[in-house]
Specification:
This protein is an all-beta fold and 116 residues long. It is built from no helices and eleven strands. It has strands at residues 3-7, 10-12, 18-25, 34-39, 46-51, 58-60, 68-73, 78-83, 92-100, 103-106, 110-114. The strands form two sheets. Strands 2, 4, 5, 6, 9, 10 and 11 form a seven-stranded mixed β-sheet that branches. It has a four-stranded antiparallel β-sheet with strand order 1-3-8-7, with no helix packed on it.
Length: 116
Amino acid sequence: QVQLVESGGGLVQPGGSLRLSCLASGFPFSAYTMSWYRQAPGKERELVATISSAGGSTTYAESMKGRSTISRDNTKNTLYLQMNSLKPEDTATYYCKVLYRWRDYWGQGTQVTVSS
């Protein structure tokens, strides 16, 4: 079955950086567009970034543009999100997602807390 396992979250000071990872299994990872989402307490889940199957095309939410980089290693079935210049408002649970066979699959999420 499809499994997505995020890691790399943690507590970081404002201005700091984190690299999130998402290990995928149960589907042909290299053939599918992947996305990162986040959800802050009391807020709706929002799209952070998307990357095409081969990695040649990426899109970002305005809030993260210029401060984050989505990438993937199809040899390792792993999706990444490098986040820099983190702000307190980036505090959220971050999820990876794939639309596979007409269904969205989500990981369990990894918590990112930006605080001094």
